[in-house]
Task: structure prediction
Amino acid sequence: MANAPGPVQDIEFTLNGDPVSRTASSRQLLVHFLRDDLGLRGPKIGCDTGHCGACTVNYNGKVIKSCMTLAVQADGAEIETVESLAGESGELDDLQESFRENHALQCGYCTSGVLMSSKFLLERNPKPTAEEIREGIQGNICRCTGYVNIVKAISAAAHGDKGLDLIERMNREHSQEVRG
Ligand code: FES
Ligand code: FES
Result:
């Protein structure tokens, strides 16, 4: 329970499909609990103030920022982190594979949060437009990529090669509008 003095509470929840039973400090943030107590390094800490989305996880079927949630709020919840995406032998899932193929990351610090938001988007809307993809990841800040390849990767995961065509067309139209 790193850096989190204060009253403690026993909590039980499901993490990436497995039951977890632990003690958490009432002051501890969920992202710190996941990283420091449970050793999951997928959720990242970018800002610790709810702005960047690096700490995004799925909580009871919705994406949340785990730096804005207390660890004790995990009690009774179902939580999924980016560690839930890969297969048992570490093989990438389709969305992760599409990120790899489309060069959708550079430093990778934002990537786990973006993947969790994208997965949530595709569960609700399996065939999103480019605009819907951009809206779906608007809570995730990426300082490296300019988002173009991230949007391509999500579109390709959703639509296959046609997804890349959709993004190319959107980019061409956007360039024409800018040139006037
Ligand atoms: Fe949680 Fe930035 S670390 S939003
Ligand atoms: Fe570096 Fe997104 S790849 S912040």
In short: The domain at 94-179 is CATH 1.10.150.120 (DNA polymerase; domain 1). The pocket of FE2/S2 (inorganic) cluster (ligand 1) is lined by residues 45-48, 50-55, 65, 67 (CB under 6 Å).
